[in-house]
Amino acid sequence: MKRKHKYQHKDVARRWEGNPVITLNDLPFRCSDICNAAAVKFNGEFLLLLTIEHLVGRKSLHLAKSLDGYHFSVEAEPLIAPSERPAFKSYEEQGVLDPKIVFLEGTFYISYTAASASGFRLALARTEDFTSVERLGFISEPDSKGGLLFPEKINGRYAKLEMPADGSSIWISYSDDLAYWGGFDVVMSPREGFWDFHKIGPAAPPFRMDDGKWLLLYYGVKRTSAGGLSRLGAAFLDGDDPSKVVSRTNIPILAPRKNYERVGDSPNTIFTCGAILEKEQLTVYYGASKGCVCIGSCSVNDIIDNCVASEKEF
Amino acid sequence: MGKFVYGRDLLHRFEGNPIVALEDIPFRCNTVFNGTPVKKDGVYYLLIRVEGQKGYSYFALAKSGDGFHFEVEDEPVMIPAETGEFAKYEKRGIEDPRITEIDGEYFVMYTAYSQYGARIALAKTEDFYNYERLALVSEPGNKDGILFPERINGEYVRLDRPIGANVGRMWVSFSKNLYDWGKSELLMSPRPRLWDSYRIGASVPPIKTNKGWLEIYHGVKMTSSGPIYRIGVVMLDLKDPTKIAHRAEEPILSPREDYERIGDVGNVVFACGAVVEDNDTIKVYYGGADTHLCVATMGYAELVDFASGTTLPD
């Protein structure tokens, strides 16, 4: 049947026609869910660090590798699994999830969320080669999720974004040594009546634009009687003071529409932990409904065009 | 007449309780409750939480020569910040101050409350009338922050109560400079079956004893008609305050009198400070029913023995 309107899609980002990129059938093991992934290029390869929920219910992080960024093979052994070491065990007993990777001072830093009976808190690890990982420690109290580092120091200090549960906003904080954190401040908050009405959190580590600003992908949740609707949005943060929002998309750049985004253990969920920016083109690896990993892409200009002033942030 | 003269709690209520009530406040307000004492040069200074008629809290100062009979100053001494970086985080009030003396300096940790959640803030005072705000030191969703009176292994230490997995537990954090905090660890959790089965939090700045750090904390039991707040004790390891030396199974004070049972929040006794006297007694200052300020006393050595498990209550 011929459709009346010529638009092939209603979202700022375009879906890859080969979606989904990784499904349960692509895994060399049985599991419950594929949740979301961090994305990074390393030695000419595309690497995804996937959050896998295993059948027993615990989550761990598995690497997937690709030469072209579209066809991935997933490793059977996790790169990061809940630790058995005493200092970590009690805080990771329910799993490790939502990794974000930044290349900072010559090393890849992986921030992830640790889950336990005491709640969610942020942990930090680093790797040189994606073969061995050194855990550095926990960098938040509970309940905080979605934490990620900026890929460079801001005014001489390390900086991180996260979503503490209370208030459901995105917060920034700073550190001299990646261990002790202070200067916590709200960056942006949910907007009443908008698609990101109830909760927002940082999604992919920010990209530095040519004009100095930071491009941040974030997720926004609107609650409905059938549960949450989780979508992707974007914002530009001030280059010198990323606690200030310069502009923010007032529409999502990607919203659940396809069956693989609407149907799954977590229906109507689009959630990313990583994207790759090459030649002004953004490739977003996103988890859909906790069942698969997909690709959406758009240009930075597409995002800028949709950054319409909405409400004043303070 | 009852058969026993001893009373039912380890702490003995002062017969003049409440020591500060609405009638003792020289300005119009809604309630007066939690207070933190300092005894300096023979004068008792009591920084007290007052809830104004508008509904948010601020601090007033009361003074006494004997620790039992107080005069309240004509004006509040600390109100929510109206300008600067603290203003947006104190919009809904400042609550539950705790004063700790470190190396001759007086630090106040208090809860800053706003639409972004409850956070822990730090201020400094020399005369108890003027307060210099230093920093907001926690993420949102955290309260009952209390500084130890000395550095341990070269670091400042605080107890606090982040909400993780919807449960209030006591955590420990460390800092080199009072501004940046890290190495947070879970210290203790509510105990199913016991009087502190729902929530717990630090109450009184830890007191150094020869058996460990004496911490007087609050525990909550949830009932079908609401929570019951009681006061309990735990002894922490002197060298490593992330370790519990002993935790008493019974509370030392429970709501029983009308001024503890009847008020804006009934069935609450909530301590914010204590004074150890030269005559081997301790005065514990506590709020009753979020409407009265009270004091109770007992033998200091007796309390230390009880908290360290050396003696059992009769």
Query: How large a portion of the residues of chain A is in β-strands, by DSSP E?
Result: over 45%
Average pLDDT across residues of chain A?
Answer: 93
CATH architecture of chain B: 5 Propeller
CATH-derived topology of chain A: Tachylectin-2, Chain A
Q: Give the overall form of chain B.
A: globular
Name the chain pair with the biggest interface and residue counts per chain: A-B, 36 and 36 residues
Overview features:
heterodimer; A: mainly beta; Tachylectin-2, Chain A; 5% helix; disordered C terminus; B: 314 residues; mainly beta; five-stranded antiparallel sheet; 2 helices
Could you characterize what this model shows?
The complex is a heterodimer of chains A (314) and B (314). Chain A is mainly beta and 314 residues long. Chain A has one domain: Tachylectin-2, Chain A. Chain A has three helices and 20 strands. In chain A, strand 7 and strand 8 form a beta hairpin. The radius of gyration of chain A is 18 Å and the shape is globular. With 314 residues, chain B is mainly beta. Chain B contains two helices and 22 strands. Helices cover 4% and strands 49% of the residues of chain B. Chain B has one domain: 5 Propeller (Tachylectin-2, Chain A). In chain B, the strands form five sheets. In chain B, strands 10, 11, 12, 13 and 14 form a five-stranded antiparallel β-sheet that branches. Chain B is globular and about 50 Å long. The chains are: A mainly beta (314), B mainly beta (314). Chains A and B meet through strand 8, strand 12 and strand 13 of A and strand 8, strand 11, strand 13 and strand 14 of B. Strand 13 of chain A pairs antiparallel with strand 14 of chain B, so a sheet runs across the interface.
